[in-house]
Amino acid sequence: MAEHTTYSFLDLSGALVHPDLGAYIFTGQGTGQVTVTMDTERSAHSVAADGTIMVSKIAGHNGKIQIQCQQTSNVHKWLLAAENALYIADTDAWAEMSASLRNTSDGTSHIIVGMSFGKVPDKVYQAEGQMVTWTLWAANIQNIPA
Q1: Which value, in Å, is the radius of gyration of the alpha carbons in the chain?
Q2: Fewer CB within 10 Å: N-end or C-end of the chain?
Q3: Can you give the pTM of this predicted structure?
């Protein structure tokens, strides 16, 4: 019998949390896709005139999380309210959001802290509802293996 693995977006659980705004428990409802992106390249190679390579190991765990969701979804409404509230709040509150995402089927997870908003997603008015994509910048993303 052939071996196989399975995947389901329904296995994603987590929360978006801000100390002033509370938490949004993330169930994936109304969400099309969540992408966690690391921004820092971990290596740089410098080449000397004689061809000697100097390899640099670079620290940094910053990146982005993108949440693609339906424009009528609860997660979109929560993010829109959070962005509006934080934009007018004290500057110290701007990057205090954090997130925890976990795939319950494979045991992997991400702990994301120091999150701040990119721009508010574009709003399309047309006959059909659309997906919108929120980009949240993160100061630190930890990839936790199973």
Answers
A1: 19
A2: N
A3: 0.89
